[in-house]
Amino acid sequence: MQPVMTVAEVEAFLRAEFPQVYLDGPLTQVEEIAPGLAALRFTASGRHLRPGGTVSGPAMMALADLAAYVVILAHIGPVALAVTTNLNINFLRKPAPGDLIATCRILKLGQRLAVVDCAICGDGEGEMAAHATATYSIPPRRQG
């Protein structure tokens, strides 16, 4: 399955549709889009840390959700109303403070649903900090 949007096109779409996310500067950057895959970098700041000096679970969940959205958009085109219907995450180990990389792969891309697998690792770390699966509902395309 080939992507239909480039990194630059996805980034521009996100900035246009979700300008509030960029008010304090970007926290994420789309690193890669390839057939069936997208990778995002998340720059965790102090507000994303929890006691114990690690990136918080809610921050990793938000990263998984956004990365899933990006890989789906990259393959279906700019559909703003594709929405999360399910997100499941398992926290596997405590990531060090710093950048996280989420790599998502499309498991199934249908007309109405997409299912994605997402691995979250600390930048430069080989082991997963979290593993997520997400299901997105894709709105019907308008005829005409």
Automatic annotation (TrEMBL):
<comment type="similarity">
    <text>Belongs to the thioesterase PaaI family.</text>
</comment>
<dbReference type="Pfam" id="PF03061">
    <property type="entry name" value="4HBT"/>
</dbReference>
<dbReference type="GO" id="GO:0047617">
    <property type="term" value="F:fatty acyl-CoA hydrolase activity"/>
</dbReference>
<keyword id="KW-1133">Transmembrane helix</keyword>
<dbReference type="InterPro" id="IPR003736">
    <property type="entry name" value="PAAI_dom"/>
</dbReference>
<dbReference type="InterPro" id="IPR006683">
    <property type="entry name" value="Thioestr_dom"/>
</dbReference>
<keyword id="KW-0472">Membrane</keyword>
<feature type="domain" description="Thioesterase">
    <location>
        <begin position="52"/>
        <end position="127"/>
    </location>
</feature>
<dbReference type="InterPro" id="IPR029069">
    <property type="entry name" value="HotDog_dom_sf"/>
</dbReference>
<keyword id="KW-0812">Transmembrane</keyword>
<keyword id="KW-0378">Hydrolase</keyword>
<feature type="transmembrane region" description="Helical">
    <location>
        <begin position="66"/>
        <end position="84"/>
    </location>
</feature>
<protein>
    <submittedName>
        <fullName>Thioesterase</fullName>
    </submittedName>
</protein>
<dbReference type="InterPro" id="IPR039298">
    <property type="entry name" value="ACOT13"/>
</dbReference>
